[in-house]
Amino acid sequence: MIKLNGIDSTGYYxxxxxxxxxxxxLLYIIVGIKHFTDPNFFIYIIPDYINWKYEAxxxxxxxxxxxxxxxxxxxxxxxASYGLILLLIAVFPANVYLYESEIAQQSLNISKNQAxxxxxxxxxxxxxxxWHSKEKHSKKISISSAILFIPTIIYFTTL
Length: 159
Prior knowledge:
By secondary structure, the chain is mainly α. 78% of the residues lie in helices and 3% in strands.
């Protein structure tokens, strides 16, 4: 065990994980609010088979804000984490549609290749949400989530 400034490596890991929880919470809340302040940003990436596009945008935004808030608190973190996993799975068809639709790509001003690169990032987001669901996970989950957090956040903050 490594000690630095009187804090062992477990303490730094716990601080890092807590920081990732608050960062993800904030990002989910911000993106959820954007569903209400700029719904058209999301409208173009909703697949054609969904008829009530604005309703889908508002509902998913509301859920994202609520889950982002619930992620902050230890008592509701597990519920929020699993809810976020379900939400990320539920909105994945929008990423597929973004890849398939030139109109959707133009609406977000991205290329087909950029849309393709965006799709696999749902996996680390799901893994990070799972990591946040409990205080302790296996070393594989903990290390991979901790490492994947940084490039995932960098990628999404540059969109």
